[in-house]
Amino acid sequence: MLRRLLVLVVAIFATIVSTANATSDDSTNKRELKYVFPFSKVPVTYSRDHLNYPAADVHGCYARVLAPTSGVVFDVETKDLWLEEVDAPGTRGGLTITLHGDDRVRYFFSHLGRVKVKRGERVEPGQWIGVMGSSGNARVTRYHTHLGMSRVCPVVEAFLLQGEIWPQKYLNAWRAGRQLSPIKEIKNLLKRDPLGCTRSRAETEAALKQKTG
Fold first, then answer.
1. Which three-class secondary structure state does DSSP give residue 65?
2. Candidate from 22-26, 71-75, 94-98 with smallest mean pLDDT
3. Phi then psi dihedrals of residue 189, to 5 deg
4. Cβ proximity of 88 and 121 under 8 Å
5. Beta carbons of 181 and 59 less than 8 angstroms apart
6. Residue 21 predicted with pLDDT over 70
7. What are the phi and psi torsion angles at 4 (to 5°)?
8. Cα separation, 206 vs 173, whole angstroms
9. Is 70 in contact with 101 (CB distance < 8 Å)?
10. Looking at residue 23, what is its pLDDT?
11. Which residues of 177-205 are buried (b: 16+ CB within 10 A; e: fewer)?
12. Other CB atoms within 10 A of residue 142 CB
């Protein structure tokens, strides 16, 4: 009986220590994360809303596009494959960069004029990664860069990638030098809608079939 009690006490103590360490690690990670306003060289503007889904269209001809936080470049598109008569999902963004931040947030920049990073490259906050342009369907709209912020999906999809949370409040904070993180909002989103990636994948496949026949 005494032995069982001793084992139980040791197990409880180990759990407490493990939880404390995990909490400490989380706090450390949050302290180490840094955010910067991801546009420079020329003044930029962006509206408070976006058509159909949360995102920001940022205007400022030839502005430099910077990494908003540290992370790894998950994907790039360096060729403008968009055809107006087809308008296929996944090509509308033209030249694009998808960054998986160390904060586990996905940052998607599209309609670029130039891509300065490669797939798999590690980037740091404020690193120059691209140039604003008019590729993709921005050829028939105003010169701008689209910024979408979303969860990281383990499947290829085109809809959540465009944006799931509103970037404007984060852009406003980063422009003012405040370290506002989207981590909490993304975590809450995952709790409310855990199957978002799967649903978006199915919608992407359906849209591609409809466009290609």
1. strand
2. 22-26
3. -65, -40
4. no
5. no
6. no
7. -60, -40
8. 38
9. yes
10. 41
11. eeeebbeebbeebeeeeeebbeebbeebe
12. 10
Structure tokens at 131: 């140039």
Centroid of chain to Cα 150: 5
For 144-203, write each residue's pLDDT tens digit: 999 999 999 998 898 999 999 999 999 999 999 999 999 999 999 999 999 999 999 999
* DSSP summary character for residue 188: H
Give the number of other Cβ atoms within 10 Å of residue 8's Cβ. Answer: 10
- Written as one letter, the residue type at 134 is S
Q: Is the pTM of this model over 0.70?
A: yes
Q: Rounding to the nearest 10 degrees, give the CA dihedral for residues 163, 136, 64, 148.
A: 0
- Per-residue pLDDT reduced to its tens digit, 94-128: 999 999 999 999 999 999 999 999 999 999 999 99
Where does the pLDDT of residue 16 fall: very low under 50, low under 70, confident under 90, or very high at 90 and above?
very low
Residue 174 CB contacts under 8 Å (≥ 6 apart), including other chains: 35, 36, 37, 38, 68, 180
Our CA angle for 36, 196, 39, nearest 5°, is 20
Task: Please tell me whether residue 58 adopts helix, strand or coil conformation.
Answer: strand
The conformation of residue 202, written as its DSSP 8-state character, comes to: H
For residue 112, which of 92, 128, 134, 140 has the smallest C-alpha distance? 134
Which 8-state DSSP code applies to residue 62?
T
